[in-house]
């Protein structure tokens, strides 16, 4: 897949990091080594998330945008990392989340720019499956998903 070849653009947080693709938002939360699944309380709703480990709230609030509730998952990896995957409701390149929660964990302007570039290149890859955009550089106006070439004849 494109995102595996082109890497991710992570946004660091006090508890870990988050990053996104056209379709999904990934959240990685560091937890104390030895954490067990029964110690984890995770609630994933369309516009809200909450995560507590051993009774301590690590993450809670209103998400930046809506997600598909039934598609959200969380896993505990190596008993020290919780990975949450949320499926975006709006899956186009113009829907680049600038923060994880509405008013919290915002990407700094440079990271936001890199995230938008990546989503735009991912969109180009989908529209042109015969080409490899994983090493491509992009400049110019790529905000809101970049230029729309759909009206051009093939």
From TrEMBL:
Keyword GTP-binding: no
This protein's GO CC annotations: centrosome; cytoplasm; kinetochore; spindle pole
Keywords linked to the UniProt accession: Acetylation, Centromere, Chromosome, Cytoplasm, Cytoskeleton, Kinetochore, Phosphoprotein
GO BP annotations listed: protein folding
InterPro entries: CS_dom, HSP20-like_chaperone, NudC_fam, p23_NUDCD2
TM annotation in the entry: none
Residues of the CS domain: 11-101
Region (Disordered): 135-154
Pfam family, one: CS
Subcellular location: Chromosome, Centromere, Kinetochore; Cytoplasm, Cytoskeleton, Microtubule organizing center, Centrosome; Cytoplasm, Cytoskeleton, Spindle pole
Gene Ontology molecular functions: unfolded protein binding
Primary role: May regulate the LIS1/dynein pathway by stabilizing LIS1 with Hsp90 chaperone.
Self-association and partners: Interacts with LIS1.
Protein name: NudC domain-containing protein 2
Organism from which the protein derives: Cyanistes caeruleus (Eurasian blue tit)
Gene name, Swiss-Prot/TrEMBL: NUDCD2
């Amino acid at each position: 897949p494109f995102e595996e070849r082109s890497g991710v653009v992570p946004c660091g947080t006090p508890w870990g990091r988050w990053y996104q693709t056209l379709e999904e938002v990934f959240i990685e939360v560091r937890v104390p080594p030895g954490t067990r699944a029964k110690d984890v309380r995770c609630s994933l709703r369309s516009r809200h998330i909450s995560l507590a480990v051993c009774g301590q709230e690590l993450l809670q609030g209103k998400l930046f945008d809506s997600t598909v509730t039934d598609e959200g998952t969380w896993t505990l990896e190596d008993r020290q990392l919780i990975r949450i995957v949320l499926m975006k409701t709006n899956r186009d390149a113009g829907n680049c989340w600038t923060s994880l929660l509405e008013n919290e964990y915002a990407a700094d302007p440079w990271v936001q720019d890199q995230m938008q570039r990546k989503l735009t290149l991912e969109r180009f890859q989908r529209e042109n499956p015969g080409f490899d955009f994983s090493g491509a550089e992009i400049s110019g106006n790529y905000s809101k998903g970049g230029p729309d070439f759909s009206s051009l004849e093939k």
